[in-house]
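Key result, reporting period 2: structure in, sequence out.
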């Protein structure tokens, strides 16, 4: 009996309970958060697209075009990644994961994810030019240039991710790992596919992460310098100086930019760190071996980033917030009017 107890204690001591409980906790979070993200993210992005298409939010045509395409990309990622990938895998809905379309799904998913990330980068660069490069602001910060930039990013993202079609098989692996499709034998051992995958990980999200940080640092530096100069200039002028409308407009634009950038950086950072460490370990550089729970939590945060932009617009843009309230109240108002009409029809003939 003592030997049995000693052996049981030895076996229990060898189990990694921290990783086990963390993995189960992340699984519970996924089971609860994924349906909520789908239920909130799809309507939120659809309403954002509808409001921005009306072009009466007080934003310039250039900014509206960037925000509109970001909402379209987020909606596409929510559908392809959350609804068509993570929810079926988490809940074991095999009717979806057994369809022989995984390689085609991967191309569309990675292209949409690249668009979502790089649209944020192009928007950040547009605001950097508008604030820090006034001599080229008129030529670059316009709707025509925005359309050209967004179209170019979309085409490049689609072409760049075509190689996944040939690297992956048509069947799903049934796991939340980045390689959620079965890999062809050529894809496993070919150095060409290895280089392409390395480039893919650098271009998304490592390079966008660094570019957004750099552009925001340069923008903040320029704003701090120009703000000090404008305050000194206004201090030497007369006392009855009207409000600085230029600085107020710039402050609103920067609030929107910084919130969108911070949203991307914070919610993508965990997945980026895991991807870098996993790539280093794959090529023989053992830097830090993170548990798979970090990778799963990173997916949850990354998918959350596709549903938060609507809240950012509502917080920073007064007209957008008013249109959003009207849009949310519209079905309830129609129900109220319908009930009122039925009540009037039933009781109008009574004395």
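The corresponding designed sequence is given below.
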């Amino acid at each position: 009996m003592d030997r049995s107890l000693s052996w049981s204690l030895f076996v229990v001591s060898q189990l990694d309970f921290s990783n086990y409980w963390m993995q189960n906790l992340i699984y519970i979070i996924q089971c609860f958060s994924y349906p909520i993200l789908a239920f909130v993210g799809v309507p939120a992005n659809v309403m954002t697209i509808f409001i921005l298409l009306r072009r009466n939010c007080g934003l310039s045509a250039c900014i509206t075009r960037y925000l509109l395409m970001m909402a379209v990309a987020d909606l596409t990622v929510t559908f392809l990644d959350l609804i068509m990938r993570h929810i079926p895998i988490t809940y074991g809905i095999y009717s979806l994961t057994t369809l022989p379309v995984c390689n085609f799904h991967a191309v569309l998913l990675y292209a949409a994810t690249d668009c979502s990330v790089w649209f944020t980068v192009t928007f950040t660069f547009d605001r950097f030019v508008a604030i820090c490069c006034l001599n080229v602001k008129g030529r670059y910060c316009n709707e025509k240039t925005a359309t050209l930039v967004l179209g170019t990013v979309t085409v490049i993202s689609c072409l760049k991710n075509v190689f996944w079609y040939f690297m992956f098989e048509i069947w799903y692996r049934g796991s939340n790992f980045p390689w959620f499709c079965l890999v062809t034998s050529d894809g496993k051992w070919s150095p060409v596919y290895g280089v392409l995958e390395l480039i893919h990980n650098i271009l998304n999200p490592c390079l966008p992460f660094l570019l957004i940080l750099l552009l925001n640092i340069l923008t903040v530096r320029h704003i701090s310098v120009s703000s000090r100069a404008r305050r000194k200039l206004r201090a030497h002028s007369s006392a009855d100086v009207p409000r600085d409308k230029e600085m107020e407009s710039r402050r609103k634009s920067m609030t929107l930019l910084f919130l969108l950038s911070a949203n991307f950086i914070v919610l993508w950072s965990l997945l980026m760190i895991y991807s870098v460490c996993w790539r280093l370990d794959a090529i023989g550089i053992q830097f830090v071996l993170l548990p798979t729970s970090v990778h799963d939590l990173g997916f949850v945060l990354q998918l959350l980033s596709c549903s938060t932009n609507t809240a950012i617009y509502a917080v920073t843009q007064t007209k957008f917030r008013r249109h959003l309230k009207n849009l949310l109240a519209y079905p309830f108002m129609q129900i109220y009017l319908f009930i009122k009409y039925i009540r009037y029809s039933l009781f109008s003939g009574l004395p």
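The chain has 14 helices and two strands. Residues 7-15 have pLDDT under 50 and may be disordered. This case is discussed further under Risks and Mitigation.
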